[in-house]
Amino acid sequence: MMLRILLAASLATLSVSIVAEPNQAVQFDHGFVSAGYDWIDVEGADFDGTVGAEIGARWTLNDLLLLEAGLSGIFDSQTETLEDNTGSYQLSISSWDFLLGIQYQQRFAERLAGYVRLGALAYNMEIELDEAFYDLKPAGSDSASDNGFGFYGGVGATYLLNPGWSISSELLFKRRLDFLDESSKPFDVDSTGFSIGLRHAF
Amino acid sequence: MPEMLGRFLSVLAMGCALSACYSGSSDSLRDPVSLEGFSATVQADLPAGAQVINVAASFYKDGRKQPLVGGDIIEAESDGDAVILRSLENLSGNYRSQLQTDDPAAGVTFTIVHDPEAAREDRWYPVDELLVDPGPGELVGLSTSINFPDPLVLDAPIGNEIYTDRSQDIMLTWATSPTTEQIRLATVQTCYSGERSLQWGTSAILGAADTGSHTINLGALIPSTNFINSVTNFIDQLSLIIVGSIIEAYSFGLISPQEIEMEAFELDYCTLSLTIFREISNELGAGISGGYAIGSTSDTVTVRFQP
C-alpha cells in the first residue's frame, strides 16, 4: 500500500513535470502558513477535534500548476473516557505530516483565485493511552508511535492583499493509512481541517 | 435484546412477594457465601435441544462480591469452546456468557485468569501495542468445574397456549430423572398495554423430589393488585440471569425492588416464559470456601394470558 502511494506520488510529480512548459524552470513561488481546526475520524472511535497548523512552500510548474511541500500537524486529539469491565480509558493522538503534492490554481478575478490540492503524505504519529481501574488497581499510561504514509486532498481560495501577501482559506482532508500496521488492529486516521492562512511571495 | 428493550417504555423491576403470591421450598444446593476467604456462585445451564450452555458466575472475597478489573477475567471452557464472561453492568460483579458444546458430559470449567489482552479484546484499538497492565488480582487462579444432570424436556404446556382467566392453572410436566437433586421454576412475565409494557420475574425452588409435574395458578404469576419485588437475593438473581440468557429478557431489570400500580395497568395481554431447571450441585474448586456451583438442564415454554 505504501509503495503504491509513493509510486502514485512520483507519477503525479512526473506528470506535473511533463505538464510544465519545457523551457520554464521550476521556480519558487511562495511560502505559506495556516492554522485551523481539524475534525479527527477513526473507525470505531470518537476523537474530538483539535487545532492544526501547516507551514510550507510552493514552486511554479506552469501558469496553473504548482508543486507543493508542507509540514503539518494535529495535536492531542482525545477520545472521551470510556468504560468497560476492565477499566476506564482515554486515548489521544498527535501527528506530524509531511505533505508533497501539486496545487491546481484557477484565477476568478484580479485578486481572487480558487485552488485544488492533491498529494501524498508521510506521517509520524503517536497515540497515548491513559487507563484506570475504578480505584481497584493502580492506573497508568502507555504510548505507541509509528511512521507511515497516506494522502491528502483539499480545496480553497486565496485573496491577494498586495503583490507580496495573500490570505487563504481551505478545507483539507488527510488520510493516514495503517497506523500501527504491525499490531493486531491497524487503523486509518482521517482528519478534515478548516484553516485560514497567509501566503508570501518573495 | 436491544429490540426488546426498545419496545419497553418501562421495564419495571419487581416481583411477586414469594410468601404472598408464589412460594417455593428452601434451596438445598446453594450454600451461603463465606464471610471469610473466597467464595463463588457459579451456574451453568444447558437448555433443552440446544448446544449452547448459558453460564453465570460471581466471585467473592470475605463475603463481598468482587468485580474483576485490569485484565482479570473469568474464562469458561467446554469440550469445544472457551469464552470470557462479561458483566452486564461494570463493577456489578455478575458475569455471564454462552458457549458451544458438542459433548455436555464434558461439563464446563470456570477459571479466573489474568489475561490483559483478552480482557480488552472488544476495544477498538490494538491492545497488543497499547496496554496498561496493573498485574493480577487476588482471585486469579481460582477454578471450579460443573457437570450437568440429565436433560429436562417439558411435555406440557404447549408453546403459545392461551389462558383467559387468572383462576386457571398452568400444569407443567416433564420426564423425571434420578440425577435430579433439585427442581427450580423461574418465570418471566411480560405484560402489554397498548404501547406500554412491564416485565418482571420470579424464581423459586420446587423441591428436591423430581415429581415430573408442577401446577401454578395464573393469578400467582400475574396478580391483579399491587405487588412488590421479592427477587432480591443473589441466588434468585443468578437464576434469572440464566433465564435472561435463555429467553433474551432484560433479566437484570428484574432484580431491584419497586412497586407497581398494577390496577392502573389495563393489560391487553401477557406472555409468560416458564423455565423448569433440573439442578445438581458440584464441588467447589480448591481455595473456594463458600457458595455453590450448580449444573442444570432446563426447558422453557412461553404461554399467553389474554383476559
What does this entry look like structurally?
Chain A is mainly β and 202 residues long. Chain A has 1 helix and 9 strands. The two termini of chain A are 38 Å apart. In chain A, a hairpin with an 8-residue loop joins strand 1 and strand 2. With 307 residues, chain B is mainly beta. Chain B is 9% helix and 41% strand. Chain B has helices at 2-7, 116-119, 218-221, 234-247; strands spanning 38-47, 52-61, 64-65, 72-77, 82-84, 86-87, 95-100, 108-114, 143-146, 154-156, 162-163, 169-174, 182-193, 196-207, 213-217, 227-228, 259-260, 269-281, 288-305. In chain B, strands 1, 2, 3, 6, 7, 11, 13, 14, 18 and 19 form a 10-stranded mixed sheet that branches. In chain B, strands 5-4-8-9 form a 4-stranded antiparallel sheet. In chain B, a hairpin with a 7-residue loop joins strand 6 and strand 7 (95-100). The radius of gyration of chain B is 20 Å and the shape is globular. Mean pLDDT of chain B is 82; it is low at 1-23, 228-235 and 248-257. Chains A and B meet through strand 6 and strand 7 of A and strand 6 of B.
